[in-house]
Design brief:
heterodimer; A: alpha+beta; Rossmann fold; OB fold (Dihydrolipoamide Acetyltransferase, E2P); six-stranded mixed sheet; 20 strands; 24% helix; B: MetI-like fold; 2 domains; globular
């Protein structure tokens, strides 16, 4: 059974109760996921979180241990990859090295015996602006060009669902930005459903309508990028999508709009609607760029949380902003991002500072406070400046 | 000092090459010897032996048998060996590593032992010895070499390529013939050439399992007892020349292709 026609538009994808076990470990546990037709959906998570396995299950390259996969309402769980209206852009591009670019793109059309494969392949190559290279071999193309051919080879089939497996991972930063824009434009143009798997939070946030953050075979949180960033529900999301300052403490006051949490003797106020838990010991947090750094103790003001005084332990300048690490006794080290409104950092290491933020900007997490990691030491979540500094320090130590 | 070192290396190289090439040159030169029954001393130059190659009783028949056995066992061994190689690299199954190891055994076992063992088997089964038994024997020992050669190629093949084929609506058969097979082709061709050379060359195992059928090596061995006719040199030289021509053609066409690709790029 081959799919004999082009999909008119994207179809929705539904996963129900998907579990995938490999010998020795479970990659995905009871996953439920619905991706509406025509959307750009990103599955975001660290390596080994099960996101690529999910993609391979949808493509049919792996069989689920349990659960159902529905594409456009049709159960495709037991069908083979070549019977599914799905195409994949592979991480390694997987262009056929023994065929010309044109034949690579026409491959899917020829297998389905659709009319005018060559004409349609040329059209798809025009879409990615590579038609002039149609007679070349993949090895004669640059990485970025190969990436675009891989994309053309997939979308020429007008799949109901296009799967992208970290397709931009092998490109350098500048090319990646450019391809991100192109991908987004093409998705809007052709109106297909895109399922994009990535570990790059920035990529997921700039491109996708909806992002699902995955961790250990489960979806931690799903939503629009702004929503995920501004209101993370778990510590994992709070730290995987950007950085967060997290605190734990007992709820000491509970009002109709706000709750207050005791953090090292200071009541920290969080809006009730932005907190997942409202009683007992809970974990709360605030994003580093929402926090301001003050060189003198501020006057108490309702609606603002203040911690301090603390000592600046580190200053890293990264152009647009400066990242400060502030050690507050009893609380620990906090991160503050400050826009560089003046030239250079405003305070130096060792300075005594207070930090303060609008109480409406805090959030309360759903995790058990006992297991909340204050700062996940994952390289990809650290700012570029910090990464550079760590690399430099390691180099110096070795020298 | 430097000059002397370079000279020593040059002399050594020439000597080594001479040592390697003298038997071939001898064979080639003596295919033009105007010899009678014995082709040992130089009697004078003639083209006769090249023109009357098949006049020696049984020689061309033996040569034909060798070609036939070589071709059939190469096709069988290459087909089976390629499938085994793919299975060993691509799939995880019980006893995979022991099978891998067992496949090395025919290569490690002395040919005499293999030949004698097979002969005993055929005797027990009551199989009449002839072309069929030679082909079976050759296929058996060639498979190991094919598996080893093709396995290396399969291992270097990105599995994502086959997955991409399946993803792009290729049925398992189409994926094999349009993606896997063309990409394995260099390895398969090398394995086939090796198989043919091994089969064409084989004397020991053949001698045990051929019955009354002669192959080219067996013919020479038997003829050696009463003097090898110069026609044997003719066939040997012809095979050698054919191989050389093949190599040259492949090299030249490869160079031409590389040039064309480079021009396209530039």
């Amino acid at each position: 059974m081959a799919i004999a026609s082009f999909a008119e538009s994207g179809a929705d994808l539904q996963l129900t109760g998907i579990t995938k076990r490999f010998p020795g470990f479970t990659a995905i546990e009871e996953l439920d996921l619905t991706i509406p037709a025509g959307s750009f959906f990103a599955l975001l998570g660290p390596s080994g979180c099960g996101k690529t396995t999910t993609l391979r299950l949808v493509a049919g390259l792996e069989e689920p241990t349990a659960g159902q996969i529905l594409i456009g309402g049709k159960d495709v769980t037991s069908t083979k990859p070549f019977q599914r209206p799905v195409n994949t852009v592979f991480q390694s591009y997987a262009l056929f090295p023994h065929m010309t670019i044109l034949e690579n793109v026409a491959f899917g059309l020829r297998r389905r015996k659709l009319g005018d494969p060559v004409g349609k392949a040329h059209e798809a190559l025009k879409l990615v602006e590579l038609d002039h290279l149609a007679s070349r071999r993949p090895a004669q193309l640059s990485g970025g060009q190969q990436q675009r051919v891989a994309l053309a080879r997939a979308i020429v089939n007008r799949p109901a669902l296009l799967l992208l497996d970290e397709p931009l991972g092998a490109l350098d930063l500048k090319l990646r930005r450019q391809m991100q824009l192109e991908l987004k434009t093409i998705q809007t143009e052709v109106g297909l459903t895109f399922l994009h798997v990535t570990h790059d939070q920035e990529e997921a946030m700039t491109m996708a309508d909806t992002v699902a953050v995955m961790n250990k075979g489960k979806i931690e949180q799903m939503g629009a990028p702004e929503e995920l960033y501004e209101l993370p529900r778990t510590a994992f999301v709070a730290n995987f999508l950007g950085q967060s300052n997290l605190f734990t403490g007992e709820v000491v006051a509970s009002g109709p709009d706000h709750i207050a949490v005791d953090v090292a003797g200071v009541p920290i106020v969080v809006p009730r609607t932005r907190a997942q838990r409202h009683a007992g010991e809970i974990a709360i947090g605030v994003r580093p760029e929402k926090v301001s750094l003050l060189t003198s103790a501020p006057l108490p003001e309702s609606g603002r949380n203040v911690l301090g005084p603390g000592r600046v332990t580190d200053v890293s300048f990264s152009g647009v902003s400066t990242q400060y690490l502030v050690d507050v006794p009893g609380v620990g080290e906090l991160v503050v991002f400050a826009q560089n409104m003046v030239f250079g950092p405003v305070v130096q290491v060792g300075a005594s500072v207070w930090i303060s933020w609008n109480a409406d900007h805090g959030f309360g997490l759903d995790d058990d406070p006992g297991v909340v990691p204050r700062f996940v030491p994952d390289a990809s979540t650290e700012s570029i400046a910090i990464q550079r500094r760590i690399a430099l320090e390691e180099e110096l130590e070795q020298a | 000092m430097k000059f002397g070192k370079g000279l020593g290396l040059g002399i050594y190289t020439v000597l080594a090459l001479l040592f390697l090439l003298i038997p071939i040159a001898y064979t080639f030169v003596f295919s033009f010897n105007d010899a009678g029954k014995l082709n040992i001393a130089w009697q004078g130059f003639t083209f006769d032996k090249w023109l009357t190659v098949c006049s020696t009783a049984g020689l061309c028949e033996a040569f034909g048998n060798s070609i036939l056995v070589g071709l059939v066992s190469t096709v069988l061994a290459t087909a089976l060996g390629t499938l085994i190689a793919i299975a060993l690299v691509r799939y995880r199954f019980r006893a995979r590593s022991s099978i891998s190891l067992l496949l090395f055994l025919p290569m490690a076992t002395p040919e005499v032992v293999l030949g004698a063992g097979l002969a005993a088997q055929f005797l027990t089964l009551g199989t009449e010895k002839g072309l069929l038994t030679i082909i079976l024997a050759h296929t058996m020992f060639c498979i190991s070499f094919v598996v080893v050669t093709v396995k290396a190629r399969v291992a270097s093949l990105d599995p994502a390529l086959e997955e991409a084929g399946r993803d792009l609506y290729g049925s398992p058969g189409q994926v094999f013939w349009r993606i896997t097979f063309p990409l394995l082709m260099p390895g398969i061709a090398a394995a086939a050439l090796l198989s043919f050379a091994l089969s064409f060359d084989d004397f020991i195992i053949t001698n045990f399992n051929s019955g009354s059928v002669d192959t080219f090596p067996k013919f020479i061995y038997i003829a050696a007892a009463r003097g090898i006719p110069a026609q044997v040199n003719v066939i040997a030289s012809a095979v050698f020349l054919l191989a050389i021509v093949l190599v040259i053609v492949v090299q030249v066409s490869r160079a031409a292709r590389a040039k064309r690709l480079a021009r396209q790029l530039g």
